[in-house]
Amino acid sequence: NILVTGALGQVGSELVPALQERLGMERVVASDVRSLPPDRPIREGPFEVLDCTDRSRLEEVVEKYNVGTLYHLAAILSAKAEAQPELAWRVNMEGLYNVLEVARAYGCRVFVPSSIAAFGPSTPKDLTPQDTLQRPGSLYGVTKVAGELLCDYYALRFGLDVRGLRYPGLISYTAPPGGGTTDYAVEIFWEALRQGSYTSFLGPDTRLPMMYMPDAIRATLELMEADPARLRHRNAFNVAAFSCTPAELAAEIRKHLPHFKIHYQIDPVRQAIADSWPHTLDDSAAREEWGWKPAFDLAAMTADMLAQLSARWAVQGV
Ligand code: VAH
């Protein structure tokens, strides 16, 4: 069976239904440190309240459901980690250590996401290579690099089948953003439809690698289903879809909502984090080793996001 930690987060809210669709409702156990609010999309299937920093509780869930594969999504994201470093270290590092130790003890396979945040100001920003300098300036980035190294150590030292992706900024409409620096690219769609304007906390020319959530979910599943003999890398693969700036994203939205206006009120903390991240990624390793290929570019993502959000609101009448 499959256990997903951080299942109520931005990725988990879509990964759980995708796994349930593939493997059946009862084989996917969703878990989160928060209890399941009544209106969340994980309406059926097993759910457990689980704080990954509590190893005995993690072991209990892995045993109870005979877990064979663990998708470890529980983490404190970049902006929130700067505000709560102690919590971020505990969740992102002790939580990961517990997951790897329990996976080792119970013979589980593991997926652990990394991020473009694993790169820093001294990393080449254009077509950032798969193997390059990783000196991130954010605490979240430090935990992502440490996590990548810890996962590769477990693969090398103990033969643990642990794999990861360096997610770009992820854009989705199912769950609200969770404290990330790229969250402007999610909020902008909700505000564009609700009030026809959005005030961006990143400046107009901040170029970042982005990916539509359906591509990120497919990349995650395809990586976990890939033939391990072909993998020369494990933690973690660069995966790219498109890069854009807030100004370019606003212009794309205006193709659908001509009166949409974007304003800028820069948040120095998140601007400094974003400025330290790549502009574009070289994902040739993912393409060569497990056949990665994105499906959504900026135009396709924008059209689908607006269509999906409008449809949801038409139903819910927000
Ligand atoms: C964040 N969305 O902003 C996350 C991600 C690419 C950044 O790790 O923190």
TrEMBL record:
It comes from Allomeiothermus silvanus (strain ATCC 700542 / DSM 9946 / NBRC 106475 / NCIMB 13440 / VI-R2). GO terms for biological process: L-threonine catabolic process. Belongs to the NAD(P)-dependent epimerase/dehydratase family. GO terms for molecular function: L-threonine 3-dehydrogenase activity. It holds the Pfam family Epimerase. Signal peptide: none annotated. InterPro entries: Epimerase_deHydtase (IPR001509), NAD(P)-bd_dom_sf (IPR036291), NAD(P)_epim/dehydratase (IPR051225). This is NAD-dependent epimerase/dehydratase. SUPFAM superfamilies: NAD(P)-binding Rossmann-fold domains. It comes from the Bacteria. Coiled coil: none annotated. CDD domains: TDH_SDR_e. PANTHER family: L-THREONINE 3-DEHYDROGENASE (PTHR42687), L-THREONINE 3-DEHYDROGENASE, MITOCHONDRIAL (PTHR42687:SF1). Residues 2-239 form the NAD-dependent epimerase/dehydratase domain.
